[in-house]
Amino acid sequence: MDKALLRKLAKRIKFLRSEYKLTQDDLSFKAKIARSTLGNIETAKNDITFSKLYKIAQAFDMSLSEFLNF
Fold first, then answer.
1. In this predicted model, what pLDDT tens digit does every residue of 28-62 receive, in sequence order?
2. Tell me, what's the pLDDT at 46?
């Protein structure tokens, strides 16, 4: 994935986490992904799979289109 796009996605996740008042631990638990994985996604260190995008969107009770609307 494009590095600029990864940074944009990371910023979106951090923003939503802040809005929902969730810690990385909270969100990783809700999304059923490792906290270290979420941390790497939020710092744009790792590419993200479609399934992880979907799990994170579900954790925010959003559709993928809502989640990716940035």
1. 999 999 999 999 999 999 889 999 999 999 999 99
2. 85
For the chain, state the CA radius of gyration. Answer: 11
**CA dist list (Å): 51 to 18, 19, 35, 42:** 22, 23, 16, 16
Of the chain, the end-to-end C-alpha distance in Å amounts to 16
Of 64, 61, 55, whose CA–CA distance to 32 is shortest? 55
Give the predicted TM-score (pTM) of the model. 0.91
Two structure tokens written together for 26: 């909270």
Residues 6+ apart with CB under 8 A from 34: 28
